[in-house]
Amino acid sequence: MQRLKIEDLQKIKEEYKATSSLRTGGYRARVTVHMGTCGIAAGARNIMSALLDEISKSGVTDIAVTTSGCAGLCSREPMATVEIINSAPVKYSDLTEDKIRKIFKEHLLGGNIVEEYALVIGSETTY
Amino acid sequence: MEKYRANLMLCAGTGCVACNSLKIREVLVEEIKRRGLHEEIKVVLTGCNGFCAQGPVISVYPEGIFYQKITVDDVPYLVEEHLLKGRPVERLMYREPEKKVAVPVMKDIPFFSLQVLRVLRNKGLIDPERIEEYIARDGYFAAAKALTQMTPEEIIKMVKDSGLRGRGGAGFPTGLKWEFCSKVRSDVKYILCNGDEGDPGAFMDRSVMEADPHSVLEGMIIGAKAIDATQGYIYVRAEYPLAVKRLSIAIEQAREYGLLGKDILRTGFNFDIEIYQGAGAFVCGEETALMRSIEGKRGMPRPRPPFPVHKGLWEKPSVLNNVETFANIPPIILNGAEWYRSLGTEKSTGTKVFALTGAINNIGLIEVPMGVPIRTIIYDIGGGITKGRKFKAVQIGGPSGGCIPESLIDTSVDYESITATGAIMGSGGMVVMDDLNCMVNVAKFFLEFTTDESCGKCPPCRIGTKVMLDKLVDITEGRGNEGDIELLQELSQDVIDTSLCGLGQTAPNPVLTTIKYFRDEYESHIKEKWCKAGVCGSLVTFYIDEAACKGCGLCLKACPQSAITGEKKQPHRIDQELCIKCRSCYEVCPTKFNAVKIGPADMLVKSEK
Ligand SMILES: Cc1cc2nc3c(=O)[nH]c(=O)nc-3n(C[C@H](O)[C@H](O)[C@H](O)COP(=O)(O)O)c2cc1C
Ligand code: SF4
Ligand code: SF4
Ligand code: SF4
Ligand code: FES
Ligand code: FES
User: Fold this and answer.
1) Is B117 in a helix, a strand, or coil?
2) Which of B63, B253, B266 has the CB atom closest to A127's CB atom?
């Protein structure tokens, strides 16, 4: 470790922002990957991994990822719900790794809903 | 930096560690790995979350789901259900005492939602052993501001304007103390932190030292700049090994980062901190005794003046503040005096941390704005009295404090209002008592403590408290006489007036307040030889009201002496020869029957005549 200057405090704070916003709710968007039994069977874990991979590559610190149970639509798994805080949640279905990567870039980063993959817009929030 | 989707904040405060939280961590980490989740989910050990009686506790972010009373066996299920499948486990959630419904999210649990966290701002949210996590929550930004942008006068003015008063008990204005010391000329000055926390039942300071040690260091750095001290000491009792460990780690990390030592943050300011472990005598928390103890002498108070701000540690000007006092400083510097005053009352600003214990549903550590009514603390945050019993009194301020009765439950917690009742704010212990407590016995308990802890230097304290204690023992054992109450009051006044230090000057408070509010209990002990709460064994007879007894047999099962006999559905009886007055039968008899009664010691003798 090195002796800090005042500017270094700010750098450390930025670096740890992802961690602290996860705990204090200071995030801008939340993605919920549905992890019911059939979701997992359909490959929800790979969706999750791809999503986390995109997030860490892009370096964004204000997106939280969570899991939830069965969404009641086993035939359309894997599914994920994207919520930009303060706007209606969007549920995506029949996901693949490529699709979630695209959703990440266009919806989560770009703010545009990927309508071709969207199942419903404005569904219930997870909690 | 790695991206985690979830953070599991597992409490590793003293309470939870005692309930196995380190083993739980081990199993948790293993299980997460086994499920292939270790790159997504991070387990963090935190300091005390505050809800110790429910420990071990975990909160899971980002959802903020709160789990309590976790066991090692719960871990695999928890990982599979919540972390893998996203189904929070209801069975491990908090339930409201009356309604019994599960409350998943921490901020919805009244125990947490009614608190305002300033001192405890980082509790449960950071790993206390990583300085970066403290910095990420604005840690050391206040020190940086104080060192680069503020003069000592400006720091002192801000602390004075904030209205902050010392949290160690007496409530002396912190800014004023700093100002006195800053005006004394000396080549060497010291700033000291009092982490002795001698009050039985109190653990506020321990929790701060364990959960957020850097906040104490940062407060001390700012204080050092204000009075121009170059060396600091934290006095911690040796019974707090975890606090000592976390503080040591924090000091080491701060030194490596150049936040302690020479040329702090390259501002040219030099200041370092050492830990001094005390042997754990109550009197060593007193400021002059504490300083002698650090000097390596026997911790005994000395008369003041000279005050420590003039002649303190090694005869040098010194400021001593409490742990909680220091933890309040960084947010004041960052947010300003007005912000600080926005909570609390005119003369008692900010928040206060209390350790809530006794006959209350939600036992734990709480932080509330000064000025909230005691009722809010007991019923809303504390969840009411255990087993639906009746609230009788709350003991505030530890052995130097007093008992506030039910009739004063709307008293606001601030220095003036609490002192007006005869109790003191003290360091923030709150022991809640229900109708099963005998107030004479409570007074006896605290006096036993002070008598034991008196350093013996001055006769009024050494002998006076002993005489008072003997009187209380007599009263609780049936040897009380007419005039004893007045005698206790006189003795109290003498001890208060003539003792040298705060220990003797406050020791009679529990006796005086219980006499003031519960005089009838003293009288019934003395005149009727009757302890109505059934605590003082020599002054009670337990008997069963045969008309009320439904013969449910609960008392018979509970009696350790097999003193109770009776057939099912028939009235039961107590054999007085066998009864050892343990009160178990009284406590188990269902309140709707209320068949076990407490009578005076001599009731049987009288009835036989
Ligand atoms: C017998 C006795 C015990 C004390 N114990 C403590 C203690 O454990 N912790 C504490 O902070 N102050 C304790 N005090 C108060 C200290 O002497 C001192 O007033 C306080 O630490 C100053 O800090 P503050 O101005 O921040 O409150 C005790 C006082 C007396 C008389
Ligand atoms: S009042 Fe009691 S504790 Fe204090 S100096 Fe005197 S004898 Fe010691
Ligand atoms: S007080 Fe204790 S010993 Fe006596 S009868 Fe009741 S349970 Fe038995
Ligand atoms: S518990 Fe009460 S009601 Fe039941 S047998 Fe004992 S005295 Fe009677
Ligand atoms: S288990 Fe996936 S929709 Fe029912
Ligand atoms: S020690 Fe875990 S909640 Fe207090």
Assistant:
1) coil
2) B63
B257 at A interface, C-beta within 8 A: yes
pTM of the model: 0.93
Task: At B423, list the tokens.
Answer: 């109790």
Instruction: Report yes or no: A80 and A99 within 8 Å, Cβ to Cβ.
Output: no
CA nearest B145 in A: which residue?
A6
Per-residue confidence in pLDDT tens, chain A, 127 aa: 578 888 999 999 988 888 888 888 888 999 999 887 777 888 888 999 999 999 988 888 889 998 887 767 777 889 999 998 878 889 998 999 999 999 999 999 998 999 889 887 765 544 3
CA B404 to chain centre: 17
Are B78 and B70 a contacting pair, CB within 8 Å? yes
* Closest residue by Cα to residue B39 from B49, B29, B25: B29
Determine the Cα–Cα distance for residues B100 and B94; give it in Å rounded to an integer. Answer: 9
Name residue B97's beta-bridge partners. none
Pairing state between β B190-195 and B318-322: parallel
- Token reading at B431: 């022991």
Task: Return the pLDDT at A125.
Answer: 47
Tokens of B383: 């969840």
Place of tokens 């302890």: B531
Nearest ligand to the C-alpha atom of residue B301: 2
Are the beta carbons of B12 and B25 closer than 8 angstroms? yes
Cβ of B436 under 8 Å from any chain A Cβ?
no
